[in-house]
Write a structure and sequence with these properties.
single chain; 135 residues; three-stranded parallel beta sheet; 4 helices
Length: 135
Amino acid sequence: MTQIMKSALIAVGTLFLTGTASAQTVGLATLPAGAINNLTTQILAKVGQAHTDLKIRVLPFRGGAAVNAKRAEFGITDVAAMTAGLLAKDEFKDRPTPNLRVIFNLRPLTVGFFVKKDSSFKTIGDLKGMRFPTK
């Protein structure tokens, strides 16, 4: 079983344990469509609805901020944004999110650079001295 599937099952279990009334609707906040968190949230909502009596609505609000503002019961966001919100730093300097807590880590977000198989770039060191457009 993949790590994402295990995480999805844990998430569904967490939603189920919140006490489901018949056809209770809950909000699951995430980033807008196209973001990786949105795709993950859509999958969690589908699995959750298939295995519980919940009606899970995916809401395109930043996860932690939406939960803090009571627009959603659950939210998914990246660790950096969650930390900034809890510590009232960076983009959350004027709007902290002190009413939140992390209940589980869904998945690590590993990011990598990819090149074509026949590229002359073999390691990150091969980028030294290269210039890249910024606009």
